[in-house]
Design a protein that fits this description.
By secondary structure, this protein is mainly alpha-helical. It has one domain (3-179, 192-388): Growth Hormone, Chain: A, CATH 1.20.1250. It contains 18 helices and no strands. The chain has helices at 3-22, 28-35, 39-67, 69-88, 93-107, 109-121, 124-138, 140-156, 159-179, 194-205, 208-221, 223-229, 231-238, 247-266, 273-297, 308-328, 335-361, 365-388. The longest helix is centred in the first third of the chain and has 29 residues, at 39-67. The two termini are 28 Å apart.
Length: 399
């Protein structure tokens, strides 16, 4: 399979989980009106979806290490499609919340397995380059999803968003079944032994270097769930824009993400990974400081309130491919499990920030900016601590 085709398919697979987040954000108010539900209750359809994703990321890598990447991916797409249909047919807020938990459990496979497939086929700078290319293509989703979701909401209602997700899942299943090839041959697979799996998970969380670096990656990303979890309030209540204007938030974010990914891909072989991470944090910090200064001195309004997001996501996409490659290289003999644990830590932080932190501050642009600054500073601190920590403990049983 040509590298560019593989990049596109893997990027589409990583889009599944984020599309389930971004596409229905413009429908928050409409869902609340349909079911006479409070904003907090509607917010749980987001935070519990992310929580479901975080829990299941612990298992997708391990399952793919044992049964192959392709079968696990295809089954997850079938389940995502079915749960999207159930979400469209929901008759109460309780049913929608429950279905969204199930949908989240199915949605995280792409992000975990795509990383493992890259590690299966590529090493070093080539792996960094591939990760950056996937991030660049993947970046289209957060820009288009809320815009298309807003249009669907305005023309056909919120249920149409979930029907569209079902169509996307079914189409991607058909494409993946036809063109995606297995990257983990049977000789490289490990038996599905729960005791060995538990031992290897203990080994991964016993590595201070791996845990601290994974937390650093997750916290660096936490600006995204902070603003995604606050998107409806930020766009409609703070910026006073209509439900079709979510592009004001997401287009700057994705513009920076794609530009940074293009640069990271181009210079992956020229700039050492550690230096790329430091450069990324520097640019992220510049964007966050701009946001803090602006929102502390002025009333938030477009375009100035959203311009700092370009710098933040530009820096994030410079740093994240190298951060991921460095963290996963700690356990080269169990890449799928390591990708699962790293994804779990990241998604657990996503759920915490979107479900608990964002509702506490989403009424204030300055509150959001200061919270973002604290999260990024914590991410840098954890990453630096991980860089100085000892390496993984000696290998135990493989999973």
């Amino acid at each position: 399979m040509p590298k560019h085709a593989l990049t596109i398919v893997l990027a589409l697979l990583t889009m599944v989980g984020p599309l389930g987040i971004d596409a229905y954000l413009p429908s928050f108010h409409a869902i609340g009106a349909t079911f006479d539900a409070s904003p907090l209750a509607v917010q749980q359809t987001l935070s519990l979806y992310i929580a479901g994703m975080s829990v299941m990321t612990l298992f997708y890598g391990t399952l793919s290490d044992s049964f192959g990447r392709r079968p696990v991916m295809l089954v997850s797409l079938v389940l995502f499609t079915l749960t999207s249909i159930l979400a469209a047919l929901s008759t109460s807020i309780g049913m929608l919340v429950a279905v969204r938990v199930l949908q989240g459990l199915c949605a995280g496979a792409g992000m975990v397995i795509a990383r493992a497939m890259v590690q299966d086929k590529f090493q070093g700078g080539e792996a960094q380059r591939m990760m950056a290319m996937i991030t660049m293509v993947f970046g289209v989703a957060p820009a288009l999803a809320p815009v298309l979701g807003g249009w669907l909401q305005a023309t056909l209602g919120w249920r149409s968003v979930f029907w569209a997700l079902a169509l996307f899942g079914a189409g991607l299943w058909a494409v993946s079944r036809r063109v995606l090839r297995e990257t983990l041959p049977p000789a490289g697979r490990t038996p599905f032994d729960l005791r060995s799996i538990a031992a290897n998970y203990r080994r991964s969380v016993s590595s201070p270097r791996f845990v601290l670096m994974s937390a650093g990656i997750g916290l660096a990303f936490c600006g995204l769930p902070l603003y995604v979890g606050s998107a409806a309030a930020y766009i409609m209540d703070i910026l006073h824009l209509p439900e079709t204007a979510f592009g004001w938030l997401f287009v700057p974010m994705v513009g920076g993400l794609m530009l940074g990914s293009a640069m990271a891909s181009r210079y992956a072989h020229r700039i050492p990974a550690e230096r790329m991470v430091r450069l990324g944090f520097l640019v992220m910090g510049f964007g966050v400081v701009l946001s803090v200064i602006y929102t502390s001195l002025f009333t938030a309004a477009v375009p100035y309130a959203v311009l700092p997001f370009v710098f933040y996501t530009f820096g994030l996409s410079l740093a994240s491919p190298s951060m991921t490659v460095i963290a996963l290289s700690i356990f080269p003999e169990m890449r799928g499990l390591a990708a699962s644990m790293q994804g779990f830590i990241q998604m657990a932080l996503f759920a915490l920030v979107s479900g608990l932190v964002a509702p506490m501050v989403f009424g204030s642009a300055a509150g959001l900016a200061w919270t973002h600054a604290l999260l990024l500073a914590a991410g840098l601190g954890f990453w630096e601590a991980g860089s100085r920590a000892r390496t993984a403990p000696a290998a135990g049983p493989r999973a």
